[in-house]
Amino acid sequence: xxxxxxxxxxxxxxxxxxxxxxxxxxxxxxxxxxxxxxxxxxxxxxxxxxxxxxxxxxxxxxxxxxxxxxxxxxxxxxxxxxxxxxxxxxxxxxxxxxxxxxxxxxxxxxxxxxxxxxxxxxxxxxxxxxxxxxxxxxxxxxxxxxxxxxxxxxxxxxxxxxxxxxxxxxxxxxxxxxxxxxxxxxxxxxxxxxxxxxxxxxxxxxxxxxxxxxxxxxxxxxxxxxxxxxxxxxxxxxxxxxxxxxxxxxx
Length: 251
Ligand code: 8X3
Description:
This protein is 43% helix and 18% strand. It is an alpha/beta fold. It has a single domain (3-236), classed as Rossmann fold, CATH 3.40.50.720. The chain has a seven-stranded parallel sheet with strand order 3-2-1-4-5-6-7, sandwiched between helices. Strands 8-9 form a two-stranded antiparallel ribbon. Helix 1 crosses helix 8, helix 3 packs parallel to helix 4 (100-128) and helix 4 (100-128) packs parallel to helix 5. The longest helix is centred in the middle third of the chain and has 29 residues, at 100-128. The chain is globular, with a radius of gyration of 17 Å. The structure holds 2-hydroxyethylsulfonic acid. The site of 2-hydroxyethylsulfonic acid has 7 residues, from loops.
């Protein structure tokens, strides 16, 4: 049976890899992101495989979220899978040195954005009595580390939202999955370090990190389990990682 997935943060990293993998697996796509050119490039790459609709908006802006999602055409309204992937980290420093602007971005994208998008999409799932929600959290949501308080708090909030959604939505036939990756080599660290590639590269130095495709594979597994199965929580590390701050590097 045909399915439609809506992916936020689809223009790079885990979101983009998931879009490509879903397309290969015949899952139709609503791709959301801020970078229009990247959305268009993905659309032309994938539209020979599945139906693709792109929406350009900022998840942290509730007005934009509501306008874009509520105006979807009828054939795109019945969303089967919601991948709440948009978000990221800004800054890595002690709380006393942290920037309020960075904190606001993390709270706006990682938490408010996830809530805004879910608020529009979930009611339709409740009416249709089916749906799958995948919230992309992080190991940072399970383990707080020094220099990352606000990022960890935002992801810890995602963990709480995943648990709460499951409590409220399971009676409506909706399955909720929380995915918590460890070190994945994407734009994540470049954004965290505001474009400083050297600092970003050091995060993934001397061990083999995960790549976005690894997480996309896990997401595909979660959405393809039989209807009576619900993967509630998945934590994925590279083989060299054992907790949020412990990575075995070969030096
Ligand atoms: C990304 C992983 O370890 O930087 O969420 O928090 S980590």
